[in-house]
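Batch manifest line 222
LIGAND: 2-phosphoglycolic acid
JOB: complex structure
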Amino acid sequence: MKKLFIVGNWKSNKTTEETKEWLQAVSLLQLPVSSETEKETIVCLPYTLLPTVKSFVEEKQLALKLGVEDFSAFDAGAHTGEEPPELLKEYIQYAIIGHSERRNDLAETDELIAKKIAAAQKYNITPILCVQGKETPVPDGVTIVAYEPIFAIGTGHPATPENAEEVAKFIKEKHGVPYVLYGGSVTPEDVHGFTELSSIDGVLVGGASLDAEKFVKLIEAA
Ligand code: PGA
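JOB STATUS: finished
ARTIFACT:
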């Protein structure tokens, strides 16, 4: 059975009230379970929303795992404004690392990203490493890579399935990564065109994960 990861990336969005509405809607719509594929649904959230989402998921026993969109490369201690994995691990199992928005807006380097990957591994958090193409370095031991070409992010113009398959296959062969996801303008309408590909093991979804109905539809269609 093929395992698929459906990962929502909320970026800088949603208040606690809006999050409660999203959770309520998702629990009523019900996250789909499939007999043909094993689907793991993850939402990567702003730090402020982690306690709310964690308690709701536990109370309602939703099939939803939690992640963050980044964390600090420092350990806990005197680092004003930083959020280290050691303190986040009580909430999360996953962390997006190296998103192109952080590489571009915050000048994150491959070196810093490698440090964060090592920190994730130290605290038993599974990093979802974002790569922008075949040239992006992939540190040893990474198990989930998300191929996110910059032209496709938030533009409504996804990569072609042919391009996603070619790059995913290359990454698997070159780096021995077991799971490669595709991300960039994924919608309920086009998701299956990616998840049906033999080298694609799921999707990283920004915009379409913010709307509960759209997100559930997307998981169903994957
Ligand atoms: P998008 O974002 O789905 O809104 O294009 C994807 C991402 O940046 O993770």
